[in-house]
């Protein structure tokens, strides 16, 4: 038996869509409206602290921190406001325009990349540019099939359903997502005992946008059901400086270009960190000198007090690199040994410390373990044991 999508009490003729109450934890972002009032709201995107985040990492972690509000005014709403990622933007703009031209939903899209690089932001932009509603949820929030069905049946034609941390869906939920993605339907059990049966609900054509930190975390079958798979890369210092200037402008304070670049250089390639540091630097500058333009000197002083060095490394990064150089003769050292020596969970090292150190060439990952590079030793003012010595000891 088939039940048409979203019949409700009015019968099968679908009335014009009225604003619906959020179901089962869904957060519905309205289509983009240019009026400032709508844009000023703080997003209500559910915040789930990542277990990997230790308080020590609060400043330099790309992940959103407990209680940290994402201010909607600084979140780009259009492709044109999204700084950097030129190749990604170009492709997605083409896909959006092509889908619109055909009057079809955008193909299911998977965005992957480390936390804080703009995956959620891109989901907002895709919905705005498509002129449809964005429904936000996350893998852990979809606890069972019924919740998923609630989200799916609430979708209007061509709407975007954004599932953050999609790799954290349970296997049974994931399985029912397959038929929704492929055939636009979802089978749900109704009734009990001998009268139990399955009803197939037909869904409005929709776009699933999934976000994950690494595609490798996704099961093969789920990954294969996305037609568009795109990675978001770490940002360059100039791009981050542009983000700092944009954020300062939107928050209504002045900052010099040099100061913005200084923050950019220390933001670990991550817009969320750049925005966070911008706000903290502003606090220091304001308390020290009142409301005036933030200069390079203010910025250096504030970042020094915040414990973030010229390369954007914080205490834990420096502790880890120092440990490899001094206690493990530069490496290679296994991640478990490192985690034990540092007293930090392995997840924290792999998930939030290493990606940036690897990307900036402070660390090498080999099949035998981690190696600190000459660049790391120079940065820390340490002597790296002669090359190869660590390996000879194995
Ligand atoms: N390309 C960008 N240009 C300007 N600001 C950005 C960009 N990408 C991300 N941001 C800012 O960084 C913050 C974090 O982005 P978000 O999309 O939440 O990251 P993710 O979902 O990947 O963890 C957002 O509040 C947004 O304001
Ligand atoms: Mg996000």
Brief characterization of the structure:
The chain is α/β, with parallel strands linked by helices and 394 residues long. Helices cover 40% and strands 12% of the residues.
What does this structure look like?
Helix 4 links the parallel strand 4 and strand 5. It is built from 15 helices and eleven strands. It has three domains: 25-45 and 53-231, Rossmann fold, CATH 3.40.50.300; 237-305, Helicase, Ruva Protein, domain 3; 315-392, Arc Repressor Mutant, subunit A (Orthogonal Bundle). The chain is 40% helix and 12% strand. Residues 1-24, 33-45 and 390-394 have low confidence and may be disordered. The strands form three sheets. It has a six-stranded mixed beta sheet, covered by helices on one side. Strands 1-7-6 form a three-stranded mixed beta sheet. It has 394 residues and is α/β, with parallel strands linked by helices. It binds adenosine-5'-diphosphate and magnesium ion. The site of magnesium ion (MG) has 4 residues, from helix 3. Adenosine-5'-diphosphate is lined by residues 70, 74-76, 82-85, 115-121, 211, 243, 271-272, 275.
